[in-house]
Amino acid sequence: MPEHDFAVWAPRPELVRLDVDGVLHPMTRGDDGWWRTSIDVAPEVRYGFVLDDDRKVLPDPRSPRQPDGVHERSQLWAPASAAWTDADWPGKSAAGAAIYELHIGTFTPTGTLDSAIDRLDYLVELGIDFVELMPVNAFGGTRGWGYDGVLWFAVHEPYGGPNALVRFIDACHRRGLGVLIDAVFNHLGPSGNYLPKFGPYLSSASNPWGEGINIADADSDEVRRYILDCALRWMRDFHADGLRLDAVHALVDTTAFHLLDELATETDALSTQLGRPLALIAESDRNDPRLITERERGGYGLTAQWDDDIHHALHTAISGERQGYYSDFGSIETLAHTLKNGYFHAGTYSSFRRRRHGRQLDTSSIPGCRLLAYTATHDQVGNRAIGDRPSAYLSPGQLAVSAALALLTPFTAMLFMGEEWAASTPFQFFSSHPEPELAEATRNGRKAEFAQHGWNADDVPDPQDPATFERSKLNWAEVEIGEHARLHRLYRDLLELRRAEPDLADFWLDHMTVDFDEEQRWIVLRRGALAIICNLGDAAVAVPVTGELMLAWGVPTAGDTHTELAGQSFAVVRT
């Protein structure tokens, strides 16, 4: 049997022993808090660590595989043994691409990475460039969104484990699809979180999901290294083309070299080493341009960021919703301003936050493709009380106008699985915590949260009920039925137009002009010779733009000086 070097950072316990198949082996502690030993073991042996006098065998904080769940022993897994066929994969830029966010567990009936491979050709035909996987790290239970991960290096076993992720990414690359992985580094889940037993992984700060991660307090250097190594591992060992970084505003870093800056620097170095582009896309609610400003100009140098202002401006203008954080949005003027400037709140007062929020984006130096535009995400659907998609309360015409404004603007475009055919299935919040007390707390907390916002608590689905998970699975039969099929064709045509027209590859917001009429509820985006004319209202309008028709929802009538649009429709014309 080959010799293997076992190591674990554990500065807190006085004694650490290695458990290999039930046999304990002594480990030696170094001055750096790392415990090490080398023994002969089988390549896929089960192992764990015993701390002090505790009888519980704990999984490796850097576990490569958790075949029996996050509470049990780890298993060795060697990425070098995986069979890759993507040696000629050149990679591609995520900036300006079309990204498809999906949840492995509900994307297909069986909810595995291998079954998702069967739908990749569909995504290619749709016109997708990148697949963005919601978190696939190991978390407690069998089903969940994945944002409560506790073993960040391991792949959730019910999805197929690490070998299945290798097969999935390899299959994507063979089809020309890039892969982004959603990584959560701002908190740990409540089920199976043993890291604090090993060392000071948690900080004195907190966020809405629990205790924060120690990236700036005492003894934080190894915790930062833990995060950096995990992030780089997804891209190096699993060949991912980048990461979506969850809620980076919850990373409390008071050091001079911000963790995001450090991660971007090391990612660029890995990109050079691998010879292909690697992307870091942040989720942030701060509207802070530093995230996407080049490091040479004092920024963090991330590839792009999610832009909820674009979503809110678009969603409220079309749906009419105004509750909660939608309160400052809703007018056509607000939509036009946001599409033109990237952020709506840019040092302006936010009534939801009751303070000034955001900072102005320099559109002359930062292209629009550094921001992501979308009509739906797992958050904007799943964090509604009943997980209803826009297709549950918007007309096909309203969905079509939303799609045109999201996909034909200078931003990087993102779709949430199923939106392209107006899926009727919801995407609800679901979990499967094995601890009864945690399950009950999650159930009651969800109901109480929405009751505070005026919802009937009895209408809020039980996240622990397996039926909530089953309801959230896509119904693929809808793709070829009626209005679902019509919207699917529209999305395919919009993405094809986005790829084919050079004017739509100009991602500078300064090069786009925006006109609108608040009373008549139309808006026009001019991008080079193309004009995207949208009627958000119910009544027909005559918009003072005309030209050769390229694509439309409805039947527009072009005159010498105007184009007449029916209510809830759009047209793309070459002027």
TrEMBL record:
Annotated signal sequence is none
- Pfam hit, one: Alpha-amylase
* Main EC class the enzyme belongs to: hydrolase
EC numbers for this chain: 3.2.1.141
The record's subcellular locations are:
Cytoplasm
Q: Which residues form the Glycosyl hydrolase family 13 catalytic domain?
A: 101-446
Keywords from the UniProt entry: Carbohydrate metabolism, Cytoplasm, Glycosidase, Hydrolase
Q: Which reaction does it catalyse?
A: hydrolysis of (1->4)-alpha-D-glucosidic linkage in 4-alpha-D-[(1->4)-alpha-D-glucanosyl]n trehalose to yield trehalose and (1->4)-alpha-D-glucan
Pathway per its UniProt entry is: Glycan biosynthesis; trehalose biosynthesis
**Which family, according to the similarity comment?**
Belongs to the glycosyl hydrolase 13 family.
Extract the PANTHER family matched here.
1,4-ALPHA-GLUCAN-BRANCHING ENZYME, MALTO-OLIGOSYLTREHALOSE TREHALOHYDROLASE
Please give the name of this protein.
Malto-oligosyltrehalose trehalohydrolase
- Its source organism is Mycolicibacterium komossense
Originating gene: treZ
